[in-house]
Amino acid sequence: MSGSGRPPTPPWKTRRYKLQTKLLCLEDAYQKECTGKVVEVQGDLVVLDQTVFYPAGGGVPCDFGVLRKDGAEYKVVDVSKKDGVAYHKIEGAPGTLS
After folding, report:
1. Contact predicate 19/40, CB 8 Å
2. In this predicted model, what pLDDT tens digit does every residue of 37-94 receive, in sequence order?
3. Distance of CA 94 to the CA centre of its chain
4. What is the largest CA-CA distance in the chain?
5. Whether 49 contacts 21, CB under 8 Å
6. What angle is formed at CA 81 by the lines to CA 92 and CA 62, rounded to 5 degrees?
7. Could you write out the DSSP letters of every residue in 38-91?
8. How many other C-beta atoms can be found within 10 angstroms of the C-beta atom of residue 4?
9. Which helix (H) or strand (E) holds 98?
10. Does the predicted TM-score (pTM) go above 0.85?
């Protein structure tokens, strides 16, 4: 813990990514699938290079669904965006997504 009594911010939440997640949902709100690249996995958070999931913000809820890789499905339970990067929160351990 830091001197403020709060735990330190995880490094992946403060790092400045050169990449910004392309939000395909802003181009076509009805698009349901895309092929994306896993950029990083940290715990239950997955960063993709592009996504059809709309991130929560401004009182608007996020999209829910699944990420698929090599026949496995990973349930997306939350999507948030910070500094242009979309973070997909996965239920369970997504370690095999990387």
Report:
1. no
2. 999 888 899 999 999 999 999 899 999 999 998 888 999 999 999 988 999 999 976 5
3. 12
4. 47
5. yes
6. 65
7. EEEEETTEEEESEESPPPPBTTBPPP-EEEEETTEEEEEEEEEEETTEEEEEES
8. 7
9. none
10. no
